[in-house]
Amino acid sequence: MKKETARTLRAFAIELTIYALLVVAYFFLVLNLLGEWLYRLEISHRYTYAGLAILLIIGQAVLLESVTTFLIRLLRGRSE
Amino acid sequence: MFFPISGAHISPIYLVIAGFIIGILGGFFGVGGSFIAGPALRLVGVDWNFAVGTDLAHIVGKSAVAVRRHRALGNVDLKLGLVMALGTIAGAEAGAQLIQMLKRAGNVNLVVSIVSIVVYFSISVFMIWESQKTLRSRKGRSQRGLVKGAKSKRDHSAFDPVTRAIQRLKIWPMIALPASGIKAISLWIILLVAFVGGLFSGFLGGGAGYIRMPSMVYVLGIPTHLAVGTDLFEIIISASYGTFTHAVKGNVDILIALVMHTGAAIGAQIGAISTQYFAGPKIRLAFVPLPLIGAAIVIYTLFTGHKL
């Protein structure tokens, strides 16, 4: 049981590190590419911005969920 | 890091950590976590209107992740979630109108503060009583803390007789919820529960999962695991609606929400997976501090005059 817990914790730590690296890269990509454009959109086209905001957050949710699921499978060799 | 839409300077690490904590709470308890997210944004200087709107956008993303995970575990009743979304949106509008009325009367802060303190304390006291009574009554049986599989999702509550009486009310139209193990229940009761949740959401802010999740368990008789997953599914719909209306009013900084959500995405998965290892009454007992935290924040703002 202890061995299994240690293995799970180790897999989780690796998963978190890989995830953190991906997230940092993602920050620079998204915030640099989209930041200024979204700011201008928010000022000039509120309804488009409102719709796009929901699409962006749901899109990111699906993308990140896929990434974390992939990492879990890769590191633990099975689906949770 | 500078966020041009809200004009705030915030460390992205702070946002990711805050999102992570809120994600765990949301994935485990089926709540949006607005009572923590709002003050967490306010703490770093985000204006209150942006804190509310951005929090809603972040809740949409976080709930979407948790719902995908809960769905894989068989914890989402889509039919119930869609029906409840209708009642929630209507309730949220009614709550917002009530706020406008109180604004005009000039006593909105005092009334909302007192109502929220009473509601938060009542939920906590009731859930302590119910979950402890349920856990005590289960002691004689051969129940283990670790639960897995569909059968273990059927949990017991000390409030069961009242729940069964509510389910027996024949107010047409009756609908079946096979995913939740309910043969027939009045549509109006579901809509009423959703409406009350929406009313509190519109009146007190946030997704009001702190009231909807317990109501689903105690009033509708939904097993706790399914109530958590279905509540999150329903939150996606109602919070999307809230995000849209707030974004149109210029209250959403989607860049903050996106950064915060990167932490919440992994936290929500951890929270959702963790529900497999706890029995329903234990989840409900662990839920108790959440409304109390909300009450503590309101008492603080009421007595000091500061908004966190």
Explain what this protein looks like in three dimensions.
Chain A is mostly helical. Chain A has one domain. Chain A has helices spanning 2-44, 46-76. In chain A, helix 1 runs antiparallel to helix 2. The radius of gyration of chain A is 18 Å and the shape is elongated. Chain A starts with a helix and ends with a helix. Chain B is mainly alpha-helical and 308 residues long. Chain B has one domain. Chain B is 72% helix and 4% strand. Chain B has helices spanning 12-29, 34-43, 48-72, 78-105, 108-138, 160-168, 187-204, 209-220, 224-248, 254-274, 280-287, 289-304; strands at residues 2-3, 8-9, 174-177, 182-186. In chain B, the strands form two sheets. Chain B has a two-stranded antiparallel ribbon. Chain B has a two-stranded antiparallel ribbon with strand order 3-4. The longest helix of chain B has 31 residues, at 108-138. Chain B is globular, with a radius of gyration of 19 Å. Chain B starts with a strand and ends with a helix. Residues 142-152 of chain B have low confidence and may be disordered. The interface between A and B is medium-sized, with 31 and 34 residues.
Keywords:
heterodimer; A: 80 residues; mainly alpha; 2 helices; 92% helix; 0% strand; elongated; B: 308 residues; two-stranded antiparallel ribbon; 12 helices; 4 strands; globular
